[in-house]
Amino acid sequence: MAIRHGIYISEVATQIQAPVQIDSGICVAIGTAKIAQDKPVICYTYKEFVENFGYVGDFDNYTLEEVAATFFKLYNVAPVICINALNGSKHFKEIEKEIEGQASFKLEGEVILDTVAVTTGVNQGDIDLADDITTAEVTTGEGDEAITEKSVTISNASGKILLGGTVKISYRKTETALGGEPVVVEVAYANLTNGKYVLPEDAILESVEVTTRGINNLRSLDFDIQSGDSFAQVTILDESLIIDDKVKVTYHELDPSAVTAQDIIDNIEKVGGIYARFNIVPGTLIAPKYSLQNSVAAALTNKAKSIDGVFKGVAIADLDSARNTTYQAAIEFKNQSNLSDPHLIVCYPKVALDGVQYYLSTHLAALMNQVDSQNDGLPYVSPSNQRLQIDSAVTADGTEMILLQEQANLLNANGVGTVFSWGSWKYWGNYTSVGPGEDYKDEFIATRRMLNFLTAYLTITYFTNLDNPINRRNIEGILQSANIYLSSLAARGALLGARLEFPEDENTTANLMSGALHFRLYWLSPPPAQEIVFEMEVDTSYFETLFI
Could you say which of 73, 391, 423, 492 has the lowest number of CB atoms within 10 Å? Predict the structure, then answer.
């Protein structure tokens, strides 16, 4: 029989679970870019963005380029997750151009390469066959039996009539010589006997004109195509096949203007599944330019309120400074549009740097990431009064806008974040779109985002506890590990205090028998010091210092 003699050590699973690192501020941007992608793409550098989405240099039409430039170049924060709603198979315009005298040429713009087709034989009108025709008038027989035949013979010596081509024969008759429309006959060249067409006896031979239809004179050409920055270089491989030194090229060009609000809304749905794809919790949703439309702002907000059914975030939308050129108009429009939700931040106006315009929503999303990174990734510090990388506030037409503090405060009081210059340009506003006077957890950006953070922490950290036996060990493990982590957040100043409890009155026998555990989290996030008051009072006793 085996015996145990010595020191033996065994290990058991730790009851206190280590907290999962959560960053609830990761931005997801929905917009347009040159290269289509059928899924969300995470980018950690500007180089990665260009490799995945290309670069045009047009922020207004390619809005994801604005996002990449703002995050990576101006605020130096990463990552950002991009969803491109622009797809060349759907959003394009048809282009047709005629090229003359060139076997190699450039097509400017965002050419969709696989749609390019090159043909020759193109002509603005019908191709004149004057050098290919011979008219004749032949009389046979005499007297009453004499027969006169008028005809035109088309030799096609020039080769302009291709196989299956047609010719159009125009001529005047005697009675129309002094006016009226000529007779026009269109006939397949193959139907003519030896190229000969018999004209009526009263046709005026001198009026005969023959042309071939350009549409039937097309020949497809083989070509090589190379893409460059915003152009495509086309080189025809066999120049000898070009007819009349003319070439027609047709292709599709990307058309960002064809992207609709519904296209953006459809792509907002791709936010679902980002955690499963990247193991990252989406925290901030933006759609610069497109969020000017209330339907897009609403879709962003609804998605932010329930991401994958478990996570919560915030959406940032802009107010249209083209239609609302004053802060009063912006306030009125915001209130009339019912843009009020604790998961929505509303911004106004646009901003600019070195003459380049940006949407404030893009800068705010990057700024929040920057502020979070300076505070251990915790979103408890408000972005308000934090420096923006801008040098002016503008309306959509570029008109500079300077807001006084009381004007900026009035925007804030109506749930609109703005910008304010005080030594440097800063984001100004602590409130979500609901504005002041709402539930404490919902009115401030920082408290709302901190609650979102706690939601993600609890969901991810304790997902592994699902389906474990309901016993004291399981419950104590959750309580102890959660309260240790919450205490650490309080020690860092991210929370004023927090505790997790397992109340007996909420965990009834019926609930427990159905497999349901109910915990209650008590928490308080520090509000922003929005108002600091210094009261000034004269103290005449200081006159006594004159007599010391």
Answer: 423
Does the bond joining 503 to the residue before it have cis omega, within 30 degrees of 0? no
Closest CA to 386 of 439, 445, 334: 445
**Distance separating alpha carbons of residues 242 and 443, to the nearest angstrom:** 70
Sheet of strand 219-220, all strands in order from the earlier edge strand to the far edge: 92-100, 246-254, 111-120, 219-220
Q: Is 352:323 a contact under the CB 8 Å cutoff?
A: no
Other beta carbons within 10 angstroms of residue 479's beta carbon come to: 17
Give yes or no for residue 171 having a pLDDT over 50: yes
The one-letter amino acid code at 344 reads L
Q: Give the H/E segment covering residue 94.
A: strand 92-100
- Confirm if 169 and 185 have CB atoms less than 8 A apart: yes
Contacts of 391 (CB under 8 A, 6+ apart): 352, 353, 354, 425
The DSSP output letter for 123 is: -
Structure tokens given for 257: 């203007």
Integer Cα distance of 230 and 222 in angstroms: 23
For 518-531, how does the pLDDT look when each residue is reduced to its tens digit (9 = 90+)?
Answer: 999 999 999 999 99
Strands (E), 312-385: 314-318, 344-347, 350-353, 356-358
d(CA 266, CA 269): 6
Q: How many residues does the chain have?
A: 548
- Report CA-CA distances (Å) from 306 to 312, 452, 461: 5, 11, 18
C-alpha torsion 320→406→365→521, nearest 10: -120
| CA separation for the pair 355, 394 (Å, rounded) | 10
Residue where the block lists tokens 């003319």: 246
Report strand pairing: 92-100 vs 246-254.
antiparallel
Separation between Cα atoms, residue 132 and residue 130, nearest integer Å: 5
Q: What are the backbone angles phi and psi of residue 26, rounded to the nearest 5°?
A: -60, 130
Can you name the residues that pair with 295 across neighbouring β-strands?
Answer: none
Q: How far apart are CA 365 and CA 371, in angstroms?
A: 10
Beta bridge partners of 224: 235
Instruction: Give the position of tokens 């495509």.
Output: 232
CA distance 315 to 306: 11
pLDDT tens-digit map of 293-333? 999 999 999 999 999 888 999 999 999 999 999 999 999 99
